[in-house]
Amino acid sequence: MGEEGEGSSLQAETGADQAQVEGQADAAQAEADTAIADRVEGSWVDTKAPDDMKPYLRLSRIDRPIGTWLLLLPCWWGALLGALATPGSSGLTTIWIMLVCGAGAVLMRGAGCTWNDISDRDIDGKVERTRNRPLVAGQVTVREALIWMGFQMFASFLLLLTLNGAAIALGFLALVPVAIYPFAKRFTWWPQVFLGLAFNWGALLAWTAQTGSLGMPAVILYIAGICWTLFYDTIYAHQDAEDDALIGVKSTARLFGENTEYWLRGFLVASVVLMSLAIIYALTPLADPLKLSLSLAGAWAFGAHLNWQLGLLKIDNSAVCLRLFRSNRDAGLIVVLIFAAALLV
């Protein structure tokens, strides 16, 4: 009876120890799931997605939609400005292009982020904000990430095939800056330029899909978008400036330092001036002063929002930097809404 009692006691202790270990493992996983600094609280990825899919959705940043918006908005600028410049074009065509751009932005942003994490897996663990990304945390293997990236790119390719030939060609060319961007911070202080080249490519593609050919207004709008990316991503990069300095990663945030506000003001002015020039170039031949004036008001309202961000900026406060970075969705939507209004008048 004594031996049986001792055996039961030992089994109980062993079971308790196992439960404690499992509980600690679950807690550690939960902490890793929530420790990503710039994730959106209560995302459906956390609350509703199947557990097996969560690491892949996080690789694609589905739980952090701001990047998708920042990729999508220049596409919509290009589509709407192209529609304004070609009054005879079908409204259904414009709507279709905008829908394709919406789905494509989700997929290509996901593919780009997956590629970024594959390329940065050796340095992400050294940065506080990125140390819990799925590849670094061991939730996904490199092979699995490559397969996931390939799936997203193939789906994007199918969408691209619904557009005209010139737009399809531009879609393939977009892969060049996407491929280079993750490595840019290793060889230049201006990696944000490469991000801008990739993130604003949709302005060229959507304009071309709408009008049938690439035009100078789209090129000017593209450069305006690059200046905008330099603005918002420099703010974003200030979150990582200290960690980047320790591991030797370059960024405009580190390059500008305490002079960041002056540089950002320059990017603000450049983006507004260039966007205004693109609008004037596209719409002056129509001799429609109402559409021209309303569209220009969109560019200036966009600039006012960027100026508001500068007034609140504190480069040494990561929470403020993240909040202002995210607010650029609203800045870009101002242009979209006013371009759409100009199209309807």
UniProtKB/TrEMBL annotation:
GO terms for cellular component: plasma membrane. Keywords: Cell inner membrane, Cell membrane, Magnesium, Membrane, Transferase, Transmembrane, Transmembrane helix, Ubiquinone biosynthesis. InterPro entries: HB_polyprenyltransferase-like, Prenyltransferase, UbiA_prenyltransferase, UbiA_prenylTrfase_CS, UbiA_sf. The chain crosses the membrane at residues 66-85, 91-111, 157-183, 189-207, 214-232, 262-283. CDD domains: PT_UbiA_COQ2. It catalyses: all-trans-octaprenyl diphosphate + 4-hydroxybenzoate = 4-hydroxy-3-(all-trans-octaprenyl)benzoate + diphosphate. Its main location: membrane. This is 4-hydroxybenzoate octaprenyltransferase. It comes from Pararhodobacter oceanensis.
